[in-house]
Amino acid sequence: MNTSDSPTPGPSPVDHRAAVAAETARFVATVTDVDLTTPVPNCPGWTLADLVRHAGSVQRWFSVLLRTRIQEPPRSRDVDLRLPERADGWAAWLADSATEAAGAFAATDPDTPMWAWGADPHARFWARRMLFETLLHRVDAEQALGIRSEIDRALAVDGVDEFLVNLPSATFFAPKVANLRGNGETIRFRSTDGDGDWLIRLRPDGFGLDPAREGADAPDAAVQGTAADLLLLVYGRLPLDAAVLEHTGDRELLARWFANSEF
Fold first, then answer.
1. Strands 221-225 and 186-191, how do they pair?
2. Widest CA span of the chain, in angstroms?
3. Rounded to an integer, what distance in angstroms lies between the CA atom of residue 241 and that of residue 144?
4. Which of 91, 191, 212, 214 is the most exposed place for a label (fewest CB within 10 A)?
């Protein structure tokens, strides 16, 4: 995929390391003293226990990558997960996973050069990626339990940006992304509650972000909603036709985007 036209991520106003701790604490509170055999509709075939195991495993694996300052794609994902011995130990185990992550963050300068599968080859990539893995699965757990989810607006803006900046590099685990090619068609995502404006351009050799300029030609398709709703949309937690979203323009282009951008 051609990512040469995608902007290099700059400093984010979000403290990703602190946000990982805060989001994990919310996740832990959600899954404490509940039935962990509850199905998770956003993750078909998973129970809450599966969701917790996945989220904590990701934190522990990313922590290993950070501690080793990995410089090339890992050949194995084997990590000593130290899984709980009792079924009622998952919430505490997830909290311990965040403790592991905090230790890795403390030992690693965010600006440390590292291998990363996405656009920012530094340690900060992994803290940012860990944050949104944790946040989205916290929301999955809440929705499985019928709890209304709240997402901080600054985190939501950063999460949409993180998704769109890194998506062109995701073909090795999301192969349908390679289908997102075109002849200059554009899709605009705009938040209605503050900053957050992204313009995707599809090209014959791939796609990437263009600067979203006021006064520029109208995009071929556009979607707008709050930053939180856009975050849920791009991650497939909210349908395009949800009442909280507004979309205009080429419906077939939008359908092709969402059929191939699953992360």
1. parallel
2. 59
3. 21
4. 214
pTM above 0.90, yes or no: yes
Give the pLDDT confidence of 79-138 residue by residue, as tens digits. Answer: 899 999 998 999 999 999 999 999 999 999 999 999 999 999 999 999 999 999 999 999
| pLDDT confidence bin for 74, thresholds 50/70/90 | very high
- Annotated domain spans of the chain: 16-150, 174-260
Residues 6+ apart with CB under 8 A from 94: 24, 27, 28, 31, 52, 55, 56
Assess if CATH 1.10.540.10 describes domain 174-260: no
* Integer CA distances (angstroms), 217 to 5, 213, 225, 250, 254, in order: 18, 9, 20, 15, 18
Give the Cβ contact number of residue 25 at 10 Å. Answer: 14
Directed axis angle between helix 123-144 and helix 153-166, to 10°?
120
Contact 153, 160 (CB under 8 A): no
Within this chain, domains 16-150 and 174-260 share the same CATH topology: no
Considering only CA atoms, which of 50, 57, 59, 58 is closest in space to residue 31?
A: 50
Of 68-77, 102-111, 212-221, the one with minimum mean pLDDT is: 212-221
Q: Which residue shows structure tokens 């522990």?
A: 60
Distance from the Cα of residue 209 to its chain's centroid: 17
